[in-house]
Amino acid sequence: IPLFSHPIDPRKSAWFVLVEKAYAKLNGSYTELAGGSFSQAIYSLYGYFSSSKDISILKSPEKTSKMTPYMRIIKYQNQGGIIGAGIQKEKIQGITESEVISKGLLLSHSYVIISTKQFEGKNFIRLRNPWGQHEWNGDWSDDSPLWTSDLMKRFGLKPASDGTFWMIDRDFFKYFTEIT
Fold it and tell me: Structure pTM?
């Protein structure tokens, strides 16, 4: 059983478990892997330096006059970028730490942006917690009454406690403080 992450379906995608073990050996042990950042992981796996963007800056009038933060994420995806997102407690504005936690999100933790989807004037972001647990439980979460069976089919949503969830852009940009 992998220590820090696991595939959504244990019968598939097990290659990264071997990579995790090799990486732990390279760094001395699994205990040396506790913590870290999305940037460190990308550099270690691919040798690429990443850049972090503060969401409060991306929401500034100067930046939004050129491109909305959501369109910026789409731009990075179209360029082939691997995009992470995080919530840094010292950067949250207008909400409390307990509100973030009550919504099923973790502070000082990296999530991966898997995809985006626009539908009926709404912008959605699909994220995954690499731990495979602790999912968003607000609007458009797996158990949200906002999902119709038709929409679930269009989005390929199969509610499961697997760390993968959808958020609408309004909530994403309210709670998350940075993208990498």
Answer: 0.81
